């Protein structure tokens, strides 16, 4: 289904083998973050390499979303250091992080109600535009050319995400699966180098999940985006991720290629309890 | 029916993004504009200066407040004070002999500067707390204006506006002041329509709906909240000057009290938040409903020979007007503009209602 000749289609073993060679996109070292007495992140260190899809998984409340919020500047870390393409971005405000061509989607949809799908996606171009009140006042001499140029980019992404039919619909009336796709389109239209997806498939049926998985893979192939994805559907994680980091209670408990990381005994016990982990170990011995 | 979308085949983005893509809408707007331009020939003096002129001026102000409340989602209860600052700054400059065109802009900048300082509260506060902060602005500005003889000329003083010219035309005749107000209203309306379809307006709307999502798309909340206050207060200041020069002709502190702020707030809420059309409807309702209701009551009392006590005749229209506003808030919170949009959507596919999406 991937149109462009793939360099590495899907989770090829070569991707894992070559992991150390690729340049580091995001590097987090010893990230600390507490909310009152709760230590949500206890010295988490992780690296995302260029061109890979990194899966961040873990049980509910393990600190995945907190981690992403720390990286994107919503919660400045209380300890540790974050670098993006080698630049220190620790504690930078979200809009400054966005200017470094990082985009993200949210776990609970964060589309702008009362606007059309098209306008929602157009906002994604904000970092590339120069909005001003005077531009609006002198629209025909000032803003129109810019608007139309960016509209062209937006239309490319609309076509890529197959949203042509619903372009003019108000965003709140379309089904959830499509809303998630609009949010992904809005993130992609800013031409990010690094894309963070927070549960892009939550609440979706099998078909919608497969669609989104396809779009994520295509985005990587066609646009060269590096992706960090938080996801609960383990079938998806094993299918599309190159590397998986498992969090539990704010600590990394396992890391590695998807199948191995997920089968790690500490991961099994974190998800299913100690007994299940023991049974698995017993089964493996027998 | 009239609003036909069938047969429209836009082949360029600018055709699709034009202000009124439907031919009927364009015709309607041009008809209304033609009527407004021909109004001095068609209407007598009372209608022109008693109804149309205040309607245009208050609509301009409501549009300015709508940018802040409807687009950027920041509540403001001190818009009357913002207009007052502009009016006093403008009138003082005009009295010094500064041309009106420059005095208007200077009044706008003065309002924008002070309005943005108070608007900075919005960086820390939201909703009801911001309402209190802007209310404080209203009272502080009222106090400073009336207690500062250099500004108001004394607590009970009024400041006369001298004879002024706009673009070389002396604003002495009724039609000259009318066209002056129409021009200002036209420019502000055009600006608001364009804000709706540019990145500036989208950034403000994004801030209103989900500020965290707007931030990660690169919209700086700091910058855009202050920009919203700046632009909205600038419009308020300019309209304040226009109000003083074209309508009041003499300014006194009590003209810019809380009543004016609440009146303009009511106009955009009844008209429709975040709509360009809304303020036009809302202003008409708020300004003229009491008058119409009063006349209605008078004629009803005359026909049925009712002998209403004088205080009842004075209060009943106000009662009905209050009920009208509450009714709108209850049954159509998005205001008169939404009612019109519903009607338009219905007529788009009439009589084939099943075709409605």
TrEMBL record, chain B:
This protein's GO CC annotations: plasma membrane
UniProt topology in membrane: Multi-pass membrane protein
Pfam family, one: BPD_transp_2
Main location: membrane
GO molecular function, one term: branched-chain amino acid transmembrane transporter activity
Protein name: Branched-chain amino acid ABC transporter permease
UniProt xrefs under InterPro entries: ABC_transp_permease (IPR001851), LivM-like (IPR043428)
Keyword Membrane (UniProt): yes
Keyword check for Cell wall biogenesis/degradation: no
Positions of transmembrane segments: 20-42, 48-69, 76-96, 102-123, 135-156, 176-195, 226-248, 260-278, 285-306, 318-337
Source organism per UniProt: Prosthecodimorpha hirschii
Keyword annotations: Cell membrane, Membrane, Transmembrane, Transmembrane helix
Taxonomy, superkingdom: Bacteria
Location(s) in or outside the cell: Cell membrane
């Amino acid at each position: 289904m991937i149109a462009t000749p793939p360099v590495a289609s899907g989770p090829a073993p070569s991707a894992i083998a070559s992991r150390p060679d690729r340049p580091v996109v995001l590097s987090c070292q010893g990230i600390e973050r507490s909310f009152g007495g709760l230590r949500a992140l206890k010295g988490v260190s992780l690296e995302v390499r260029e061109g890979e899809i990194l899966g961040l998984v873990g049980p509910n409340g393990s600190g995945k979303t907190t981690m992403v919020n720390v990286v994107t500047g919503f919660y400045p870390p209380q300890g540790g250091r974050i670098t993006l393409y080698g630049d220190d971005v620790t504690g930078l405000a979200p809009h400054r992080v966005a200017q470094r061509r990082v985009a993200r989607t949210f776990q609970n949809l964060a589309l702008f109600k009362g606007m059309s799908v098209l306008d929602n996606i157009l906002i994604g171009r904000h970092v590339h535009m120069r909005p001003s009140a005077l531009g609006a006042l002198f629209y025909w001499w000032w803003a129109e050319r810019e608007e139309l140029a960016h509209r062209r980019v937006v239309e490319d992404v609309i076509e890529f995400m197959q949203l042509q039919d619903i372009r003019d619909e108000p965003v709140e009336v379309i089904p959830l699966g499509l809303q998630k796709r609009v949010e992904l389109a809005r993130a992609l239209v800013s031409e990010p180098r690094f894309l963070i997806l927070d549960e892009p498939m939550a609440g979706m049926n099998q078909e919608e999940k497969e669609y989104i998985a396809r779009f994520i893979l295509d985005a990587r192939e066609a646009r060269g985006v590096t992706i960090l994805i938080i996801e609960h559907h383990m079938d998806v994680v094993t299918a599309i991720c190159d590397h998986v980091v498992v969090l539990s209670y704010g600590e990394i408990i396992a890391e590695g290629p998807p199948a191995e990381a997920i089968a790690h005994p500490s991961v099994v016990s974190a998800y299913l309890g100690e007994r299940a982990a023991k049974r698995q170990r017993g089964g493996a011995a027998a | 029916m009239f609003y036909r979308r069938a047969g429209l085949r836009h082949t360029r983005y600018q055709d699709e993004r034009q202000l009124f893509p439907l031919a009927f809408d364009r015709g309607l707007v041009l008809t209304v504009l033609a009527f407004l331009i021909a109004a001095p020939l068609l209407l007598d003096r009372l209608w022109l200066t008693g109804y149309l002129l205040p309607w245009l001026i208050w609509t301009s102000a409501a549009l300015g407040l709508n940018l802040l409340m409807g687009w950027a989602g920041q509540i403001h209860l001190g818009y009357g004070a913002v207009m007052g600052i502009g009016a006093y700054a403008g009138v003082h400059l005009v009295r010094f002999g500064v041309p009106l065109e420059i005095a208007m802009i200077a009044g706008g900048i003065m309002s924008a500067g002070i309005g943005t300082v108070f608007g900075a509260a919005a960086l820390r506060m939201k909703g009801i707390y911001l309402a209190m902060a802007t209310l404080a602005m209203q009272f502080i500005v009222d106090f400073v204006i009336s207690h500062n003889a250099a500004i108001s000329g004394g607590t009970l003083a009024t400041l006369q506006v001298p004879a002024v010219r706009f673009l070389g035309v002396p604003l002495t005749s009724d039609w000259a002041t009318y066209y002056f107000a129409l021009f200002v209203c036209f420019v502000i309306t055009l600006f608001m329509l364009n804000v709706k379809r540019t990145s500036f307006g989208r950034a403000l709307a994004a801030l209103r709906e989900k500020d965290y999502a707007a931030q990660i798309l690169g919209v700086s909340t700091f910058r855009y909240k202050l920009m919203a206050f700046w632009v909205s207060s600038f419009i308020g200041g300019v309209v304040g000057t226009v109000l003083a020069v074209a309508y009041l002709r003499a300014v006194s502190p009590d003209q810019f009290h809380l009543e004016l702020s609440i009146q303009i707030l009511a106009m955009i809420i009844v008209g429709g938040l975040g709509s360009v059309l809304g303020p036009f409807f809302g202003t008409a309702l708020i300004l003229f409903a009491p008058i119409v209701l009063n006349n209605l009551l008078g004629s009803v009392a005359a026909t049925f020979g009712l002998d209403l006590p004088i205080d009842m005749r004075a209060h009943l229209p106000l009662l009905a007007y209050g009920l009208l506003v509450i009714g709108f808030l209850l049954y159509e919170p998005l205001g008169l503009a939404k009612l019109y949009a519903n009607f338009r959507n219905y007529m788009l596919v009439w009589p084939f209602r099943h075709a409605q999406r």
